[in-house]
């Protein structure tokens, strides 16, 4: 597969060029790619097609000086991400300072709630968002802000080349599975920096000032917080961190008296250990998971080759022979050899014994030269007749449809059922009543999606 040989950024660049060429083709110079010739190919290869697309993109970018324009969206996102991480540093430090106040005592559980409580809630929401595929829960406010702000700034501009490039980058990199894990990465980085900043400020405060650690409760039972301390301390003891014992916990009850250095040291180590075990380590693991999943889905990312833009480029970048012959020959006619017809940029090769049918065509559809419609499927009777013909022929199938119509579910069902009966290859030809009347892109796209749903290869679509 081509994705094993090309970087994800190459595919992003192709998508950016697709948006630019679709939205503002008149602003581009095609001088560099005018000399590119289609090369013959006996069968479609994704790797070969992608290589041609990248070669074409290189000429297009070079001729129009688009390097800076295409890189700008990613630079804006990175800049916004750095601002968000700087905000996390400020918020983490302020949280630790406000929790400590100016007194000489630290409420141990209030500190844990301030530094770990919101972080834990964020992790629960992220897990729920990932499991339920809810983008809002798995991204978080900070990450959404980093994605939204640069895009809003770009939207203020007119429909320029840079705007189309930015929209394409946002569509590919910040939506779908790739976007979900990219935004998750930023979310975990935000909370990791928040915890590191809070813990760093807290350690500095404890180094510069002597604090007594206290705890107390009004509504909870007296033994609830000591029991919670023992439960939280179990994992920390396994990695060699000290945990206050029962006597030290009791001596730290509010109003119990003055603490000695041993009790203060035990609580300080417990506080730092809790921040590491229940804050930093889970966030670090989730961030590494998000990084791995991001790279996995970037590796698996594929271009949507059923978009009209790529179907058109297939027809222009890959040349194929289009061989036709008379299917229902008059017995009195002399035998002829097949005629090789050169079609501009979108020729196709059909087997001589292919069954050619139409679906709900009127009498004005224009078929390519050399193709004769053998049956027009308009009702259940003609459908059953074509089905019997396919079972007997066991050959290829060429289906002609009216390009100006939108395919409904009935047409899609007929095409899918016929496709299951074909043992050979299948083609879909979009026929027009008048070559002078262009087919709307929305209708063309609808037929391409029908071909995709019916497993008809995109290179077997002729329009």
Concise account of the structure shown:
The model is unreliable at about 320-345 (pLDDT under 50). Helix 4 packs parallel to helix 11 (about 260-300), helix 6 crosses helix 8 and helix 9 (about 225-240) packs across helix 11.
Write up this protein.
This protein has 463 residues and is α/β, with parallel strands linked by helices. The chain has 2 domains: 68-300, no CATH class; 312-462. It is 59% helix and 8% strand. The strands form 4 sheets. A 5-stranded parallel sheet has the order 8-7-9-10-11, with helices on one face. Strands 1-4 form a two-stranded parallel sheet. A two-stranded parallel ribbon has the order 2-3. Helix 14 (409-421) links the parallel strand 9 (397-402) and strand 10. The longest helix has 40 residues, at 261-300. The chain is elongated, with a radius of gyration of 33 Å.
Label this structure with key terms:
five-stranded parallel sheet; 463 residues; alpha/beta; single chain; 2 domains; 8% strand; two-stranded parallel sheet; 15 helices
């Amino acid at each position: 597969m081509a994705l094993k040989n090309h970087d994800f950024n190459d595919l992003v660049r192709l998508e950016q060029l697709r948006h630019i060429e679709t939205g503002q083709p008149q602003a581009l110079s095609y001088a560099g790619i005018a000399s590119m010739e289609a090369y013959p190919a006996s069968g479609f290869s994704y790797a070969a097609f992608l290589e041609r697309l990248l070669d074409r993109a290189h000429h297009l970018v070079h001729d129009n000086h688009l390097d800076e324009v295409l890189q700008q969206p990613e630079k804006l996102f990175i800049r916004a991400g750095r601002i968000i991480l700087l905000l996390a540093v400020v918020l983490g430090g302020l949280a630790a300072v406000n929790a400590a106040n100016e007194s000489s005592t630290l409420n141990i559980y209030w500190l844990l709630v301030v530094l770990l409580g919101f972080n834990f809630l964020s992790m629960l929401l992220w897990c729920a968002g990932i499991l339920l595929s809810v983008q809002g829960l798995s991204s978080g406010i900070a990450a959404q802000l980093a994605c939204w702000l640069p895009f809003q700034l770009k939207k203020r501009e007119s429909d320029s080349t840079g705007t189309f490039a930015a929209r394409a980058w946002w569509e590919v990199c910040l939506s779908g599975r790739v976007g979900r894990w990219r935004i998750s990465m930023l979310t975990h980085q935000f909370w990791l920096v928040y915890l590191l900043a809070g813990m760093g400020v807290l350690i500095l405060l404890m180094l510069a000032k002597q604090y007594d650690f206290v705890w107390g409760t009004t509504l909870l039972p007296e033994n609830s917080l000591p029991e919670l301390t023992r439960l939280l301390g179990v994992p920390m003891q396994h990695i060699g961190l000290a945990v206050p014992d029962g006597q030290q916990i009791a001596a730290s009850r509010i109003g119990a008296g003055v603490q000695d250095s041993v009790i203060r040291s035990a609580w300080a180590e417990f506080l730092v250990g809790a921040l590491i075990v229940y804050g930093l380590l889970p966030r670090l693991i989730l961030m590494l998971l998000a990084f791995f999943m991001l790279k996995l889905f970037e590796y698996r990312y594929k271009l949507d080759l059923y978009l009209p833009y790529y179907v058109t480029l297939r027809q222009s970048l890959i040349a194929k022979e289009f061989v036709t012959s008379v299917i229902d020959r008059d017995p009195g006619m002399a035998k002829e050899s097949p005629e090789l017809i050169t079609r501009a940029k979108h020729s196709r090769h059909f087997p001589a014994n292919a069954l050619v049918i139409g679906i709900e065509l009127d009498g004005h559809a224009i078929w390519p030269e050399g193709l004769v419609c053998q049956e027009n499927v308009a009702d259940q009777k003609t459908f059953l007749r074509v089905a019997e013909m396919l079972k007997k022929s066991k050959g290829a199938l060429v289906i002609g449809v009216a390009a100006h119509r939108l395919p409904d579910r009935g047409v899609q069902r007929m095409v899918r059922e016929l496709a299951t009966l074909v043992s050979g290859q299948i083609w879909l030809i979009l026929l027009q009543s008048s070559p002078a009347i262009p087919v709307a892109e929305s209708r063309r796209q609808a037929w391409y999606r029908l071909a995709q749903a019916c497993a008809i290869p995109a290179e077997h679509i002729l329009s």
